[in-house]
Amino acid sequence: MATFIIGLVILFGGAALYGRFCEKVFGPDDRQTPAYAKQDGVDYIPMKGWRNSLINLLNIAGTGPILGPIQGILFGPIAFITIPIGNVIGGAMHDYFSGMICLRDGGTQMPQMIKRYSNKGIFNVYNVFCCLLLLLVGAVFIYTPGDIAATQVFNFSGLATDPTTWIIYGVIFVYYLIATVFPIDAIIGRIYPIFGAILLLSAVGVFIGIFVQGYPLLNLWDDWQTPFMNAFTVDAASGAQNAFSYGDYFDANHFIPIFFITVACGILSGFHSTQTAIISRTMKSERQGRMTFYNMMILEGFIAMVWAAGAMGVYNLALQEPNASLATGTIGVVCKDILGPVGGIIALVGVIVLPITSGDTALRALRLSLAETFHLDQSTNGKRMRLAIPVFVLAAGIIVFAKFNKDGFNILWRYFAWSNQTLSLFAFLCITVWMFENGKGKFAWMPLIPGAFYAFICSTYIANAHIGFNIPWTASYIIGVVFAIAYVVALCLYGRKRGAAVKLKMNK
Questions:
Q1: CA 6 to centroid of chain Cα atoms
Q2: What pLDDT does 463 receive?
Q3: How far is residue 127 from each of residues 42, 65, 110, 370, 493, measured CA to CA in Å?
Q4: What was the pLDDT predicted at 242?
Q5: Cα–chain-centroid distance for residue 491?
Q6: Which of the chain's termini has less CB crowding within 10 Å, N or C?
Q7: Number of domains in the chain
Q8: Is residue 36 domain-resident?
Q9: Is 472 within a domain?
């Protein structure tokens, strides 16, 4: 339990210090925001700060900070330390600067920011990459809450042959379409505060329950090779219960890079940068940025920590088999054991809300991105609907494939997890170049450190993975090191060049 508490201190203490430092480096001021300068009653609308913060939290917090930590805690209590450190210096910093640069540049979409701070080639790669990821997010976040609702709330089978599965998918689908097309204050701005309250109450309920129930949590200094209580795995051949060892799992499954791909959203998520335009277009002041962007990512880290602890507790009590493939079932076990039948259902509703409130804004961001790229008029509901329909047809096709193919969803999830982290490298690129262009080159280490680390993580993973190039681990690690060095060197040279060009232009 002590390591868990230390991790929370790192998370919130680090956020107070580093968040303030990030704010000082950026330098928010009282200039007019896009919500006023470009007010259109659809996407550019001034909204209250607390509402923007809740909307952003729900936009960015999908199933990642729940399913990821549930699987990641199998690596042991080190997750209680790596999650908060990575969140403070990587994820929250990524979200803050991505959001603030977007805000200062007029509420521009991330693809346009990439075009502004890189070159046409990188922009084209990112644009395709980003659109595919947003489409995958939309599809995955229909599939996941639909299955949780079907199996954990309504006790249906959740099978592809069960009509109730598709009815639940259809309800989520209709909501997504409405949220994608209609003005942001008509749907998202009105119901998100309710969703936000449910989300926070469920997370706080599980957090309190961990202490009340006395969940056994391992510490870094404990013996990882011996389960704390009665954790077990089941031998597939004999059916015998075998003791589970976090240490063995840590060694066998390559903590680096697998952990940092698995626990995506609680530490760092490139998807978050695609959501910044939505909120940057509704903020009344730049000074709301630290609360809206940085602190909301910290809250997502808190959610990740809570679910990691809850999962370790039920594993150690032998209430659930410690198996990454059973993560969805673990959600139900944690909720119902800690909060009882009624409270458990309420908590499950909060869990279902998470992916739904990310999926709808992902598809909304995809519509906006396509509209800006191809210069499509989106002034009426009909025009927005014509662009949204093809997007939803593609999303539906992905869901059908994932549901009827035995390994379909696992394949999609692996690609989603890797592409999600890889996308962050583009955001770190933007932040680095922006710093050089704005006379803040001495702070370029802030995006370069997490950027270099994830350049190594993402390249190593895809080099070795079966869904990638299937290269042996030793060679994959070498590839990762080379790519990370190349990423840093190229970005420093390019950033300094851009900074010098801006300085020369100003002196003329």
A1: 23
A2: 97
A3: 23, 25, 9, 9, 23
A4: 63
A5: 24
A6: C
A7: 1
A8: yes
A9: no
Tokens 């240490």 — which residue? 247
CA-wise closest residue to 467 among 403, 401, 417, 397 = 417
Given pLDDT bands bounded at 50, 70 and 90, which one contains residue 428? Answer: very high
Residue 283 lies in a domain: yes
CATH (domain of 375): 1.20.1740
Q: Residue 383 has what pLDDT?
A: 84
The residue type at 287: R
Label residue 376 left, alpha or beta by phi (over 0 means left) and psi (-120 to 50 means alpha). beta
Q: Looking at the predicted structure, is the pLDDT value of residue 230 above 60?
A: no
Q: Which long-range contacts (CB under 8 A, 24 or more apart) does 11-18 make?
A: 11/83, 11/84, 11/87, 11/88, 11/298, 11/301, 11/302, 11/305, 12/298, 12/302, 14/84, 14/85, 14/88, 14/89, 15/88, 15/92, 15/294, 15/295, 15/298, 18/88, 18/89, 18/92, 18/93
* Cα–Cα distance, 5 to 384 (Å, whole number): 47
CA angle 162, 166, 167 (to 5 degrees): 105
Mean pLDDT along residues 369-392: 82
pLDDT of residue 129: 81
The alpha carbon dihedral of 190, 196, 197, 199 has a sign of: positive
Average pLDDT over residues 117-136: 87
pTM assigned to the model:
0.88
Distance CA 427, CA 436 (A): 15
* Beta-strand relationship, 241-243 and 232-234: antiparallel
Q: Which two tokens stand for residue 354?
A: 């998470």
367: containing domain: 2-400
Q: What pLDDT is recorded for position 94?
A: 97
Residue 68: other Cβ atoms inside 10 A: 28
User: How distant, in Å, are the alpha carbons of 139, 224, 279 from that of 282?
Assistant: 26, 48, 5
Residue 470 is predicted with a pLDDT of: 94
Kindly calculate the radius of gyration of the chain based on its CA atoms and give it in whole angstroms.
Answer: 22
Tens of pLDDT, residues 468-502 = 899 999 999 999 999 999 999 999 999 999 999 98
